[in-house]
Amino acid sequence: MAEVIMNGVNASSNMCKDLTNRCEALREKGVVPCLAILRVGSKPEDISYERSAEKRCTSVGIEVKNIVFPDNACEQELISKICQLNADDTVHGVLILLPLPPSINERSVCEALSPEKDVDGISSGSMASVYLGSGPGYTPCTAQAVMELLKYYNIPIAGKHAVVVGRSLVVGRPVSMLLMGENASVTICHSKTENLADICRSAQIVVAAAGHINSITADCLSPGQTVVDVGINFDDKTQKTLGDVDFEAAEPIVYAISPVPRGVGSVTTSVLAAHVTEAAERSLIQGGF
Ligand code: NDP
């Protein structure tokens, strides 16, 4: 049996206490931290994420503005809205729900967002900050949520071998950079990796972000490991949300494991709230208050 089940709800509540105090301090100084959420269309998964982001943000004292465009919105309309939000001093962060409809050039829309307000790290300015280790942008929330979970459960990272399964810009690559920033030796795996099981077994930390149920099975795991499951996959058979890791098989083998649900996903919206709070604090400093 795993000694530690890394519960994201606990890590998240711990973060929220601090955020509530910081938002209160900002309000006392006349700054109301504010997040604008921009959604195109009405995909159920977007609406569901928007609701949980809104719930988390309002719970710590962040105001949320919901901006909804129809499915057939054009790229220029979105870009001019983003430019408006960039210039609006009462909005500190902007969350654009991705992916956008295929008719829209998503990269152009992401690049329109000023890194100072890019609280989910989608612009190349933010990505550069992740790679440089500093700068005006923010880390993608899910990637940082993995780090918050490891930190909350005191999992040693420095000097350890971490294997990240997945190389997307949203999760795999940024989490690899963050782990390396904490002095882990990182191996990035993907769909063309040979001997995935052998590579995973050799690691002390495994981060699963492949986007498929049971991508990580018992043969990928060894005793003493910490396994962070980023996957959120809907299983038609059981009608349940499952991760990428075969939890039942993994849990008896490893030292620590995050469940799905109530794992990384529960921390992601708190990281988002933390980024909005930080953006509001930075605006206060820049505003010379
Ligand atoms: P992508 O589909 O963009 O990327 C998946 C990555 O996994 C790709 O790099 C792909 O390789 C690799 N991969 C796919 N299959 C395998 C395999 N069998 N073995 C090894 N590598 C494989 O997904 P995302 O990064 O956006 O998301 C990953 C998962 O995390 C999803 O389940 C998603 O729902 C979840 N997620 C969770 C969030 C949270 O808050 N908890 C937020 C965002 C995402 P290649 O590059 O070669 O194609």
What can be said about this structure in brief?
This protein is α/β, with parallel strands linked by helices. The protein has helices at 8-28, 44-60, 75-87, 106-112, 124-132, 141-152, 172-181, 196-201, 247-250, 264-286; strands spanning 4-5, 34-40, 63-69, 93-96, 161-165, 185-189, 205-208, 226-229, 233-235, 240-242, 256-257.
Outline the structure in words:
This protein is α/β, with parallel strands linked by helices and 289 residues long. Helix content is 42%, strand content 16%. It has a six-stranded parallel β-sheet with strand order 1-11-8-7-5-6. It has a three-stranded parallel β-sheet with strand order 3-2-4, sandwiched between helices. A hairpin with a 4-residue loop joins strand 9 and strand 10. It is globular and about 50 Å long. The chain starts with a strand and ends with a helix. NADPH dihydro-nicotinamide-adenine-dinucleotide phosphate binds next to helix 10.
Number of helical regions: 10
Largest sheet: 6 strands, parallel
Spatial order of the strands forming the largest sheet:
1-11-8-7-5-6
Percent helix range: 40-55%
Q: What is the element string, with H for helices and E for strands?
A: EHEHEHEHHHEHEHEEEEHEH
> Which molecules are bound besides the chains?
NADPH dihydro-nicotinamide-adenine-dinucleotide phosphate
Number of strands: 11
Indicate the low-confidence ranges by residue numbers. none
Q: What integer is the average pLDDT?
A: 96
- CA-CA gap between termini: 53 Å
Shape verdict: globular
Structural class: alpha/beta
Report the sheet-strand fraction: 15-25%
Query: What is the CA-atom radius of gyration, in angstroms?
Result: 19 Å
